[in-house]
Amino acid sequence: MSENDDADLVVRLKAGDEAAFSELVHTYGPRLLKHAEQFLKDNTAAQDSVQDVFLQAFQKIHNFREEAALVTWLHRILINNCLAYLRKNESAETLTIDSLMPKFDWTGTRTEARHEPLPSVKDLIAQKKICETALKKMNQLPDLYRCVLLLRDIEGYSTHEASAALLISVSMVKVRLHRARSALKKLLEPTLLEFHT
Amino acid sequence: MSEKRTLKSRLLCATYKLPMSISCEEFETFILAHEENELTWRQQIVFNAHLKICGACRTYLADYQASVNLGKSILRDAKAAPLPERLVQAILAARTPGS
């Protein structure tokens, strides 16, 4: 949807046009649901969250200043909802991050086994099965780290924006992002090597 | 520390004490800043120097970048399914007072 279409939609929403509300839900709902599922890993919770986003958007549409795109505004509401949900409902089915961190000996030298470099990402994502497996592995990351990864690497938040959304310091965002990426590497490595050989 | 300090590990340790050289563990702490282009020029020189001499860190960094890119590609390319009609109706009904 173009910026002009968005502007027109906002005018109609503010005027209380019934069709505009339906259009908003049909246009942005699927994308919001996809993102909610990525954060919450649960379809029912994701649907509840999306419903809540639209209800908040309907109520607050008069405060929408059009400084940001409509989709960005909806995403912000969604992410705040998802993070609040995750703070309340800690997931039990995750690994401890320390077990996924790189290992060093007393000299500070890496002790992990070396292998051939992994194949290119382009070659890998062409295989549907690897995408499914990799997604399952990513969902094993503890929420604290998965959320930083999603905000920074997928939603495109800056470190400062992620810090504000997660209510943690900028340096903590950086620490968690690096640990999340390191853990992701460790989790994905066996799958990637398996598909490589 | 119970770990046996071999001649090789002692030599390695001594190498890391040279000016401008870092251990793999210290290299690890620079990775994020490197990926975000936040290293100072001096840090960048030290980082590159370690990368040149350490095959383990070269492989590690390449795999780290590949994993991050794979994760990004998978999540960004995931198809968004249409909203279930029941959910659409629930959202629109909840908006209408008295529904």
Q: Shape of chain B, please?
A: elongated
How much strand content do the residues of chain B show? under 5%
Distance between the termini of chain B: 70 Å
Helices and strands of chain A, in order, run as HHHHHHHHH
Helix and strand pattern of chain B: HHHHH
Which stretches of chain A of 5+ consecutive residues score pLDDT under 50?
A: none
Using only CA atoms, what is the Rg of chain B? 25 Å
Proportion in β-strands of chain A: under 5%
Radius of gyration of chain A, taken over Cα atoms and rounded to an integer in Å: 20 Å
Structural class of chain B: mainly alpha
Average pLDDT confidence of chain B is: 82
Largest sheet of chain A: none
Give the biggest sheet of chain B: none
- The helix content of chain B is 55-70%
- How many β-strand runs of chain A? 0
Q: Name the average pLDDT of chain A.
A: 85
Largest interface: pair, residues per side: A-B, 52 and 50 residues
Number of helices of chain B: 5
